[in-house]
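Q: What changes when S-adenosylmethionine is included in the input?
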Amino acid sequence: MIPLADRYGRRFPYLRLSITPACNFRCTYCLPHGYHAEPGKAGPLSLDEIARLLRGFAELGMQKLRITGGEPSVRRDLTDVLRTAAAAPGVTRLAMTTNGTLLSRRLGDWMDAGLNAINVSVDSLDRATFARVTGHDRLDDILHGVDMALAAGLPTKLNAVLLRGVNDRELPRWLDYLREHAVGLRFIELMQTGDNAAFFRDHHVRAGLLETGLQEAGWQPLPRAADAGPAREYRHPDYAGRIGIIAPYSKDFCAGCNRLRVTATGDLRLCLFGEFGIPLRSWLQRDDQLDELVRAIGGQIGRKEQGHFLHEGRTGITPHLASTGG
Ligand code: SAM
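A: The predicted holo structure follows.
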């Protein structure tokens, strides 16, 4: 095993794999008009292709894998995908990001298949606001699924994208929730993508602004684990839950980058906002292509840039996060 490292000394034990670009929600900042398949576009990777891809990344030191989309649960064979992913050599952490629409019904199957952590997107605890942001009045059932996940002992995080004038005044409500719920709440700063420039202008708010208030209220910063995601984490002795801040526009955000992405059709993305994808699918067709696959990935890592160019409004080839895997 030769762990991947780039020319800035960063290692990449963490892979985020999208298994479908399709989504059943219409989040205002991502797919406001819903998902529409592009005619003629290749379909998502098959189970065999996924298994080969993960064998390749395992050779390069992958330990943590996140299944994402689009919405992973719109794929009918999701449980098989999870089982395949859990069987990949070296994977000690198998997580998934989901909107939670099937969580209460499928949790047991997903855990039996090997899922050992989950992120559920909950942009608001207010039912009407949640429905307005996502296009679906499903908050109660999703929160029920979250309760089930917690009761089952599954490490659970909630993702909330901060939107100015929409959900940026909900901290007191979240704090009430966190008193009893042992979730890791992530406040994610809205990112500009190719399709959402006007929305971004109207609703972007710095996530870092929350941090001063949290520290004044006694929330203490936690040290960052080596395979951790991008959040700066806080805890408070009076609360069961934790709070993480994901602030992609903050200084040095990319210095801690430890992850790579592969799209649903098998393109390696060195950065969520990069200018190019590296097609890997042709090396996923036979088991005897493993060495070529490993060389193909290893040979490209030197092209990873030191940072993204979001500050300059350069969003790369990502029209919306569903297309790449958020
Ligand atoms: N469908 C799943 C879900 O809802 O979590 C997984 C895919 S979704 C693209 C992954 C995460 O990206 C979600 O938490 C979503 O809110 C977040 N996201 C999508 N577009 C974003 C943007 N422009 N800025 C910040 N976060 C975004």
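Observations recorded in class: The pocket of S-adenosylmethionine is lined by residues 23, 29-30, 68-69, 71, 97-99, 121, 159, 161, 188, 190-191, 193, 196, 321-322, 326 (CB under 6 Å).
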